[in-house]
Amino acid sequence: MTSPRTRRGRPPASTREALEEIAFELLLRDGYEATTLQAIMTAGGVGRSTLFRYFGSKAGIVWGEFDRAVERLRSALRDADDAPVMAAVRSAVVRSTRLSQAAAPESWLDRFRVLDRDPALAAETAAHWRVWAETVSRYAAERTGLDAGAPVPAAIGGAVQAAYVAVLRRWTTRDEPVDFGELDDALRPVTDAFQALLNGRDLS
Asked: How far apart, in whole angstroms, are the C-alpha atoms of residue 76 and residue 185?
């Protein structure tokens, strides 16, 4: 049966977002290593110059928007300095996620599906998530006066990232709009526990 993405007469992808959506359908179906740039160009009905203008490379399709998501997180953290440190972290994660979803609504979760499931990307995925977690850790360190490599800021970054990924995985199993309130609720026990620790209260 002919794929709906490659059927004859399909109009060419006219935007970066449309081509990205097609690319992630192929990546999910065939895997990162087996998906060629030519396959993406053929499915999208675009030429090499268009694809390279949008993404630069196959890696750019996968990682470009992830890197922009980290920048959105950094920006949201900078804008949240008036709140207590862990409330600021939770707010920034939710806000930056909203912005990332709005930037690529059709391919946003497909990107996570590819990164989370494709063995060929496992090492790079882990490295990129470390950058995400370290962004949170550095912010927590700056707000608390602790060293960025100290145990508490490192634990904050790791725990927030783990809770975040758990919610993303849950969302990928559903065929319904994402609920950002659910993300806030999932992060709250983690951020509240660390805020209590930072405040010097007994967590038992």
From this structure: 18
Q: Are 90 and 184 in contact (CB under 8 A)?
A: yes
- Checking if the pLDDT of 24 tops 90, the result is yes
Whole-angstrom Cα distance, residue 11 to residue 42?
A: 11
164, pLDDT greater than 50: yes
Superfamily of domain 62-198: Tetracycline Repressor, domain 2 (1.10.357.10)
Residue count of the chain = 204
Class of domain 1-56: mainly alpha
What pLDDT does 100 receive? 95
pTM of the model: 0.87
pLDDT in tens, 55-79: 989 999 999 999 999 999 999 999 9
Query: Taking 80 as the threshold, does the pLDDT of residue 113 lie above it?
Result: yes
Per-residue HEC secondary structure of the chain comes to CCCCCCCCCCCCCCCHHHHHHHHHHHHHHHCCCCCCHHHHHHHHCCCHHHHHHHCCCHHHHHHHHHHHHHHHHHHHHHCCCCCCHHHHHHHHHHHHHHHHHHHCCCCHHHHHHHHHHCHHHHHHHHHHHHHHHHHHHHHHHHHHCCCCCCHHHHHHHHHHHHHHHHHHHHHHCCCCCCCHHHHHHHHHHHHHHHHHHHCCCCCC
Q: How far apart are CA 1 and CA 126, in angstroms?
A: 36
